[in-house]
Specification:
The structure is a homodimer of 338-residue chains. Chain A is elongated, with a radius of gyration of 26 Å. The first copy, chain A, contains 13 helices and ten strands. The first copy, chain A, has helices spanning 4-20, 26-32, 39-51, 68-78, 86-97, 102-117, 170-184, 192-196, 205-221, 224-227, 245-257, 259-268, 317-337, and strands at 55-56, 65-66, 120-124, 133-142, 145-152, 157-163, 230-233, 275-278, 290-297, 305-312. Chain B binds a DNA duplex (30 and 30 nucleotides) through residues 23, 25-28, 37-41, 43-44, 46-47, 57-64.
Chain lengths: 338, 338
Amino acid sequence: MLSERRLQVLRAIVQDYVGTEEPVGSKALTERHNLGVSPATVRNDMAALEDEGFIAQPHTSAGRIPTDKGYRLFVDKLAGVKPMTAPERRAIQNFLEGAVDLDDVVARTVRLLAQLTRQVAVVQYPSLTRSTVRHVELLSLAPARLMLVLITDTGRVEQRMIDCPAPFGEASLADLRARLNSRVAGRRFTDVPSLVEDLAEPFEAEDRGTVSTVLSTLLETLVEENEERLMIGGTANLTRFGHDFPLVIRPVLEALEEQVVLLKLLGEAKDPGVTVRIGHENAHEGLNSTSVVSVGYGSGGEAVAKLGVVGPTRMDYPGTMGAVRAVARYVGQILAES
Amino acid sequence: MLSERRLQVLRAIVQDYVGTEEPVGSKALTERHNLGVSPATVRNDMAALEDEGFIAQPHTSAGRIPTDKGYRLFVDKLAGVKPMTAPERRAIQNFLEGAVDLDDVVARTVRLLAQLTRQVAVVQYPSLTRSTVRHVELLSLAPARLMLVLITDTGRVEQRMIDCPAPFGEASLADLRARLNSRVAGRRFTDVPSLVEDLAEPFEAEDRGTVSTVLSTLLETLVEENEERLMIGGTANLTRFGHDFPLVIRPVLEALEEQVVLLKLLGEAKDPGVTVRIGHENAHEGLNSTSVVSVGYGSGGEAVAKLGVVGPTRMDYPGTMGAVRAVARYVGQILAES
DNA sequence: CCTGGCACTCACGGCTCGCGAGTGCCAGAC
DNA sequence: GTCTGGCACTCGCGAGCCGTGAGTGCCAGG
């Protein structure tokens, strides 16, 4: 087990390195933090920390930098979440308040997060499967062509075109619309499949084909892969990555273009609170030199989606975690109001 | 006026520089292109081209690189548009064919363009103001809350929440819906304002407030700034910019995040064919070292939106122009089918 | 267990220098 | 007049060569 002082040394190393971007040596450490011991003692502690794999030297006779494992310890044990100041909170609230619809809320949230953290922001749209149905609408666009519109309690709207196997009368349409809504309105999306199972039965034989097409389209919309959307922003902040970034930035940009990768990334975080995945903890190899800070947000007590930021492992964890948490909280409020 | 040979020299310089990314000298030129003259002659031609501002030297005793003006001449006079090969055309068609809705078409187009050109792709959604109305739908979500849904002939769907000044009955709603659609369905969006002017008149006094709220929301949706959407992709290709890119890439990423900037960029191109804006021809200063190749696309003869790519001024213009033109053509076809 | 001292390592920046690609100019040939 | 070969000149680039200094590990003594 590491002594208290060694933990302090690690904390000091992380803080200094995050601030300066340069390997930190024993002498500089004792000067900037009053640890009450001499550089030589710190050197011994550093050697121990290095043995345990918390810090490393880029090359012999250089200072130390934290490893992923070091950051992990720092985040778990040595640092809290830095709360936002009152003015910052007000600014967040003001910024989000003017949003006119869900797209706008998400877009504003992305911008806000990117600005606050000076990193790449990722915001997932409220998940369908974790929302409840506000309304299902069916529009007839042409004799054998329908549009299905889903509206959730979080303001999300999904639409789908449907080509009917047979023409579908206005009366049948109204009937189906009414039956659908009475079954599913106000219910959770996860319950929808079982709620609509037998909905085709009361219909005339000629209409059944269309009804079941509609139902299967509805169910398709709820399939995991299709139903998730997200928005990213602040990619310009990638340029703050470091000097050697041509090699680092490329895979990151590529990963950010793969929505699937990002969704997995956010999805993996199961904690109720802020989750931090550091460097190699990220499954995707392009993101091995980045950390992902994410958290769920939702209108009520329950999370309906996630948001977070992607940045260099050398980041200000307490501050970033604070910003992410605060933004999530306010987005939740905004959604609850609408 | 420049002699024929000098133009050939310029063409050769552009081609070589685009290929190698390195300043090209007189000797290398005569070796790679059989111009039929000696390096010394080429040197004289180069001196003349430099005097005219078509090429420049990064430093004394280095080869020449084309200036923006040189690229401009190259694009206008010296190079055509390189048509896609038959297999390429087939690949484009296959790639776009599987799309299920407009979002999907746009997303696929972005990916495709980015892959074909190996540059950053930008695709604008079909403009509302240049489309015709397929259907307008009004849904009642709550007693005093409506949702307005606009559907265009290109498959684009916009929705807007409306808070009514007074509760609005189901009957009035059906009435308004029917009147609205009979007026505007099949008409161009630009005509909508004049078509709905007097639509509130037939309604009872108590409903008029709501009706005019609905109408003004409808008109707001058509306001230039709100109605334009776009999607970008292939930002990872920015890493192919050059060696010095830390400084170049940053403003480009920033510009790409400003949708307004991009819309302006695409909007400026008025040509019916492929438009190329080179380096400093772009108004936005962050894009001074990039070229933008764009073209309109549409389901019929008329352009409903634009698409294009953003890349380094040192790009393969004929190839890029060919790819952009071909993709636009096929996207137009896909939209016409749906 | 901490500390001061000491010898050692090694990245970094500045320096020189030779190489070679590229240039401009000029005198002569066609 | 135009092209060509020749020639002297420029200058960026990379290699090699230090000196400097921050940083280290180890050890003997408090």
